[in-house]
Design brief:
17 strands, rod-shaped, Heat Shock Protein 90, five-stranded parallel beta sheet, 3 domains, Beta-Lactamase, 14 helices, 50% helix
Length: 465
Amino acid sequence: MPKIMIVDDEAAISMQLEERLAAMGYDVVGRADSGDQAIEMAEDVNPDLILMDIVMPGDLNGVGAAAMIKTQMDIPVVFMTAHAGKQLIGRAKQAEPFGYILKPFDERGLEATIEMALHKKEMEQRLQESEAKYRLLVETMSDGLAVFDHNHLSTYVNDRFCEMLGRSRDEIVGRPARDFLDETNQGISRQQVVKTKRGEMVPHELVWTRKDGRKLSTLVSPQPVLDAEGHFDGTFAVVTDIMELKQAEEQIRASLREKEVLLRELHHRVKNNMQVISSLLSLQAKNVREKKYADLLKVSQNRIECMALVHERLYQSQDLANIDFDAYAKSLARDLFRSYGIDPGRIALNTEAKGVSLALNEAVPCALIMNELVSNALKYAFPEERKGEIDIALTAIDGNKVELRVGDNGVGLPEGLDFRNTESLGLQIVTILAEGQLEGEIQLDRTEGTHYQIRFKGAKDKART
């Protein structure tokens, strides 16, 4: 039951009003006949609503008493008056009353005014509670919050934003963001404001200048503020400190640069060591008189050089994890042509591997396979100065597989030769690498020469499975 207090200097009116209110179901907790008594009684009984006459005797009239009660106790007041002049109403507005009741009272009007006043007070309390919750949320959030009007002047900043800039709220509010940005970041801010006005909420990085001169890297997430007609009326932005993230990012970059240098050096040393082994084999071959053994040393030397070439290409590449196979295939084939003394005008070389890169664990076995198959073609496919072509192709197929094709239009393999069961070490190496290390499939086409096709999953696809 709502508690109501009556303030009127005429006792008869107060008693009559009390009876009416009781009949309506209200609890009248007190009656006062002056402004001073009203303030004292309100503190004592703490009513939900006060019905107060505007004109009362004494130094403190109804308007003054109502203003003091609102300020000190936040109790709503409804004025009662027999006069409705503009001057009186104008004075009464200063106390921010919750309504007016004209004497003599109309019962329906009286009840409606009281109910509306009580409802308005309840809504105000709910709004104040909601505002208090949101203010607490904003003031205790871990990110900064700044609100700017349509003139780009700050109208509100939370404690965290002040802490981030090392400034008090008074030093920030009323000033534009550009006052705390250097020239470069002012330009970024202007561009982002244009985007926000268009409705594009694009998070972006801004570097603020603190009061002590230090720079603060942040991520700003803006949101436009629109008026009742949907027009741009300002911006509020959540500002996140990303200094630690930036520092960690720079540490990672530095670490990657260091590892890149070490990896390049590693590829360089491996390539040099293999070159030393190749040179030793070359020196040994000069002391071997029997051609059969000299050829075996040359084959071993070519195998080592083809692996050394992989590391050389990686050392020279911008991408230390993958090798451009097109350039590699051409270099390896040229080295083999030179090693076997083949005239490029007699045997043409065709390569096709543009846009295909291989990881190191794929490049080395592919290089060895290509070395063996091209070497076999150069040695056996074109006897007696026969002319022909050697084709090398590496393509991506089915989105997740790689196909290596090495073929020639020479005399072909001997009838009945099973490349999987042969005494040839070279073909044994091809089979082991294709089916074992690459986990792929190898097929042989004897039509118009010799053509090998090897299919295997790419390294990225293997990682997924």
